[in-house]
Write the structure tokens for this entry.
Amino acid sequence: MLNIDLRGKRAVVAGVADDAGFGFAIAKALAEAGASVSVATWPPALNIFLKLLERGKMDESRRLSNGELLSFDKIYPLDAVYDTYEDMPDDVRTNKRYAEVGDCSIDGMAQRIRADFGEKGLDILVHSLANGPEVKKPLLEVSRAGYLGAVSASAYSMISMVQRLGPLMREHGSFVSLTYMASERVIPGYGGGMSSAKAALESDTRTLAFEAGRTHGVRVNTISAGPLASRAASAIGIIEKMVEYVSQNAPLTSKLTAEEVGNVAAFLSSPLASGITGTTVYVDKGYHAMGMAVPPG
Ligand SMILES: NC(=O)c1ccc[n+]([C@@H]2O[C@H](COP(=O)([O-])OP(=O)(O)OC[C@H]3O[C@@H](n4cnc5c(N)ncnc54)[C@H](O)[C@@H]3O)[C@@H](O)[C@H]2O)c1
């Protein structure tokens, strides 16, 4: 049988703070395939996440097919808008949520991974995070700071991770990020420069695949997922409508599940995908292929 076999592989999924989003489903799929999985969590969401875990609130969704509960090797604090500790302003460093976790920059996470697992201790990195401070504002109204904030948190963070974690990757390592079709087609309401950030993320996937492929021998891909009512997506304000619209108009009418995206991320991170890099893979029930809404009736 041809299986996704990630036994002996070590993965970090950045952007997990509950069990409702793609990151959690990806972590679970990687664990189902045998990988040991760590996650990285945004400091403002970290305590709530730890409490949910501690109190058993996620036990049902953590249940793996072998009956065990999904567990994380490490839970790293990560604020992906900072590359180094020096980049973190004083008011952030001293903020209660941040003071208790120390260096939660991307470099800080890389140092912790190196200390925990050694110089070449990583096989898989999944970037499953995004943030657009003005996501509810149309592009026509977005401020420079809001636009750059969206690109910084949602696209540059991936470049910074490949820069800092590429050297820690063992041979055949894999980077995967999550993007959305608003990068290439207009999705009214997906504002704040988030569409621009996703366009940058997809373009960078190709360039990083080339550069990091040549430098570190790793692969870089992105999954263009259909809409899912995760916590982040609910902040956009129209996610239910987006989900409904896709199920009415996509080739496949069943609603997209996070597990479907998790399975593709596990495949892309596995040796079965050793020939795939620099690619945007659609996991959206085929919606991207449509050129016209299905007429009613
Ligand atoms: N939900 C959708 O409809 C949809 C569709 C396509 C792509 N995506 C993408 O999937 C990825 C995961 O999002 P999701 O929808 O599963 O929601 P989610 O809420 O599960 O994940 C987003 C995570 O990003 C974290 N985050 C925000 N700012 C951060 C920062 N500065 N540093 C570190 N972490 C930060 C949040 O705490 C959260 O855990 C994102 O890239 C998103 O754009 C989502």
Summary: The pocket of nicotinamide-adenine-dinucleotide is lined by residues 15-17, 20-23, 42, 45, 78-81, 128-131, 153, 178-180, 225, 227-228, 230-233 (CB under 6 Å). Residues 87 and 129 are 19 Å apart (CA to CA).
